[in-house]
Amino acid sequence: MGQGRLKKILGYLLIMAALLNLPSGPAKAATEMGVTRATLKNGLRVVIVRNTLAPVVTTQINYLVGSNEAPEGFPGMAHALEHMMFRGSPGLSSAQLSNLIAAMGGNFNAATQQTVTQYFFTVPASDLEIALNMEAIRMRDVLSTETLLRRKRGAIEQEVAQDLSNPQYMFYSRLLNVIFAGTPYAHDALGTRPSFQKTSAKMLKDFYKKWYAPNNAILMVVGDVDPAVALTTIKRLFEPIPRRAVPARPKIQLQPVKPTTIEIDSDLPYGIAAVAYRLPGYDDPDFAAGIVLADALDSRRGNLYGLAAEGKALAAGFDATALPKAGFGYAHSEYPQGQDSSALIAEMKQIIDAYVKSGVPPDLVEATKRREVAEAEFRKNSISGLAAEWSQALAVEGRNSPDDDIEAIKKVTVADVNRVAKKYLTKDTGVVAILTPRKSGNPVASESSRPGAESFASKETKAVPLPAWAKRTLDPLAVPTSKVNPTVTVLANGLRLIVQPETISDTVSVYGAVKNRPELEAPKGKEGVDQILDELFSYGSVKLDRLAFQEALDEIGAQASVGTRFSLQVLSDRFERGVELLGDNLLHPALPKAAFEAVKQRTRPAVAGRLQSPVYLSQRAFLQAIYPKNDPTLRQATPDTVSSIELESVRAYYEKVFRPDLTTIIVIGKVTPEQAKAVIEKYFGEWKATGPKPVTDLPPVPRNKPTATVVPDRSRVQDEVTLGQTFELTRQDADYYPLQLGMNVLSGAFYASRLYRDLRENTGLVYSVGADLQSGKTRSVFSVSYACDPPNVAKARALVERNLREMQTKPVTSEELLQAKTLLVRAIPLSESSIHGIAGGLLDRSLKDLALDEPIQAAKRYKDLKSADVQAAFSKWLVVDDLAQVVLGPNPK
Fold first, then answer.
1. What is the C-alpha separation between 30 and 8, in angstroms, rounded?
2. DSSP secondary-structure letter at 744?
3. 3-class SS string, 393-424
């Protein structure tokens, strides 16, 4: 749960908001192409989209209020209220809410943006009424008392500390402040510690009363539901809630952008340079042209990406986001630690200027439009993703449906794109941002890993009676019937093909992997050869060079990635051509000499930067703490090993690793097993393996000893703590299942689990905490991770240790056991509510040599387990006194 900033520099981008006053009236339903709409008498807008991919439904309630409406001096007001919405409402306590969420599979979240606050649940379709009832109760009122806020304030402040420790978030927030200075857009929803300390429960309750009204909300329901039945239920639950007057919105008066340079210290292993410009907002008629412009600039055929292809940058591209009255976009490049960023900034400006002067190539514009249209079809492949798309379109952008943007994009001309480029990408409005990686020092042994004299009284977990309308959700569960029933074929060359037909969209997705282990397969002294090979795939095949290969993908609107893990998303009528391109790139990579030199040139300094990165050093410190000195996982690439790699080394590594008898391919979508087999066999059937299979399983390891390590990171304000140990348990061991059941008692059900209750709910020491067990064929790693203020590391660890010891000395309660079982069993259909989730599960189980229906088999085992089994497994495998501890945080004083 958080304020929903999707910070996208290389993976993070804020989904921002647009806000319109929405009409209300009598509840009249209208249905078009599987979409049912209605506006209730109290003004609540309802949209129901039927999607039968899995027996699952997502509800998403969008309150049309965000950080824009926060009072002066309280930028995180909407965010704080989002947190308080999980503290309960009259008729539904926080404990009841948490237990119900766990009982329905635990898949929920919330997000506060600048103009919208969203709450979403993804649950089994049979539980739709329960989810709707919860949201109706929360729409009526919220519990906001000083006692509850005092308990919640610590977790909110820890979320602030978490983001302030993230250089990508700092980049984003500073960019907002410069580009939208003097407007509510200048800050996002996070808030500040001082403002939260001044925030009172009454202020939050008043904010709720002003904005959380049915006539200021949109309810999305997407999934395998009967629309008429769902609408009847919604009317019964929501229509009695009275409408309320909604205050006026703040006005946005944009000021001219002043050229500015933003400089930020970073703990990333590389530097980032960016040049940002204002772009059209959602309300602007040029918004669609702005989308096409930004995506064309980000194309792998574009000149920005060419900076990376030519070895001048580690990576490069263009990202963009929008608000109602304006948006912004930025060209960005990664560069090696220690390199001056000025040359890259100058090159990016020159590239942008050249596009402005000469125009974006027409074929690139048309390719971008084709890709946008295809992506709209791909978005149907996830129930929760489709709900998010509809919410974005209606509540954020003020559209009638997601198709509105697509239709607008189809009408964009080359002249439109070039006009927008000339208007917005001007030299005198560019904002430069530089994230400079700084050395923080080497890891050091800590004097003590133990919490010392800290002591906390144990509180027994008490059963909480549920509302009468919800009690049935905690009844003993039958093992669900999975809709996933794939056809499995092993080709003559040993390749394993798994086909799962789905008709939810006119698309086919291909996911594949070559089972490999670089730690065991890379020649000694050539560490990093796998990284170089992985980057060389992007340079095309023997038949099609880098640009020609990308152009061929663009012609069919396909997306593809190639490496030891590879994928393809393509429209169903272009399936064969997509597989032909995928197979050509995977089986006949070009591996050109010039590209090899460029990749090697940028890999060497990238590796050097990684070896000095605090995040990497903390990860390595943990591996060194739990594994012996000669363990293969401790091998690492260095500048010297990268320098020693020749092109022939890369080719030899490719021949050794890439073989059909270690490969699994999943084909899922609008295709029959016969069609899929014929196409895969046509383009992968001649692939041959040579020589013996390489070893891909790590050796067993002894148990670790207790250690404590501190890794300094001067860019952080918060300590990130990892506790863990390794032991001999394998994935095939029967104890794996009671241990996983115990993991869910500890942290699987958010507030309804022990670690969240003790470290977040009761003490406010952390924002998030998780227990995890990773098991393979030869070893297991148990870990607990959390982040907190530096003075609280020992306090939090004391609570973790107390909980672990209780798992070993006391049986978990019958209520906790049932809740953990319910969570694991209900998670099965939820995991199959997207094409990506189905394929990912099948691929993972295939690579681990597990039965493809293992989740169903596991559910049967979980159902029979008892509290004594969980206690025995924790007692047998876990040694609390031997936990290794690694702390990544501010320089110790």
1. 37
2. I
3. HHHHCCCCCCHHHHHHHHCCCHHHHHHHHHHH
pLDDT digits (tens, 9 = 90+) for 402-447: 999 999 999 999 999 999 999 999 988 899 999 998 877 787 777 6
Look at residue 718 and tell me whether its pLDDT is greater than 90: yes
Of 656, 893, 884, the residue nearest 784 (C-alpha)? 884
Taking 60 as the threshold, does the pLDDT of residue 768 lie above it?
yes
Most distant pair of Cα atoms in the chain: their distance: 75
Q: How far is the C-alpha of 118 from the C-alpha of 217, rounded, in Å?
A: 10
pLDDT of residue 19: 26
Rounded CA gap, 554 and 171, in Å? 32
Per-residue pLDDT tens digits for 601-628: 999 999 999 999 999 999 999 999 999 9
- Tens digits of per-residue pLDDT, 275-299? 999 999 999 999 999 999 999 999 9
Q: Which residue has the tokens 């009363």?
A: 209
Residue matched to tokens 């001096």 = 73
Per-residue CA distances from 361 to 302, 303, 367, 426, 561 (Å): 9, 11, 10, 19, 24
**Mean of pLDDT values over 337-361:** 95
CA-to-CA dists, residue 176 to 190, 272, 326, 431, angstroms:
13, 17, 11, 11
DSSP sequence for 99-144: HHHHHTTSEEEEEE-SS-EEEEEEEEGGGHHHHHHHHHHHHH----
Q: For the chain, report the end-to-end CA distance as a whole number of angstroms.
A: 32
Is the pLDDT score of 35 beyond 80?
Answer: yes
This prediction's pTM: 0.92
> If residue 769 lies in a helix (H) or strand (E), which one and from where to where?
strand 769-775
Contact by Cβ (8 Å): 280, 420: yes
Q: CA angle at residue 250 from 248 to 252, to 5 degrees?
A: 140
Question: What residues contact residue 576 under an 8 Å CB cut-off, 6+ apart?
Answer: 679, 682
The whole-angstrom separation of Cα 694 and Cα 515 is 10
Tokens of 794: 């020992």
Q: Answer for the pair 103, 753: CB distance below 8 angstroms, yes or no.
A: no
- In whole angstroms, what is the distance from residue 99 CA to residue 462 CA? 12
Q: What is the pLDDT of residue 8?
A: 33
Sequence-separated (6 or more) residues with CB below 8 Å from residue 271: 334, 335, 336, 337, 339, 341, 434, 435, 436, 437
pLDDT of amino acid 28: 52
The pair of three-digit structure tokens given for residue 533, joined into one six-digit string: 């090979």
Determine the Cα–Cα distance for residues 694 and 605; give it in Å rounded to an integer.
Answer: 30
Among 126-135, 349-358, 442-451, name the one with the lowest average pLDDT.
Answer: 442-451
Instruction: Read off φ and ψ for residue 436, nearest 5 degrees.
Output: -100, 120
